Amino acid sequence: MRGSTLIVFFGAFGLMLILSHLVLMRRLYSRHPEVWSELGGRMFPAREWALSRWIPFWSLKSIVFFLAGRYHRIDDVTFVRFATLFRLAVIVYLVSFFISEWFFFYR
Length: 107
Known about the structure:
Oligomer: single chain
Number of strands: 0
Largest sheet: none
Order of helices and strands: HHHHH
Distance between the termini: 12 Å
Number of domains: 1
Strand content: under 5%
Structural class: mainly alpha
Number of helices: 5
């Protein structure tokens, strides 16, 4: 792949991840508000964290929550399935990004 194709691919994939994270945060807020409020932590005060339902904030706690699979503690099968797909997509995105960067710059 050429550089411009990679930029478009990773841009579109990244946009899909941003929107998926936003959907997950909205579902988490509507179905499990206590878990949602914990993910803001000290990084975002309560008023700013409330915007995470409309603006895609990725706090360190929310990243760890999804990548470490801590969402399995929630008793919501639909949410867990969607979160598992999101986790897989983030891992695929990161691995493919680093592999493509390595091939693009070190070939």
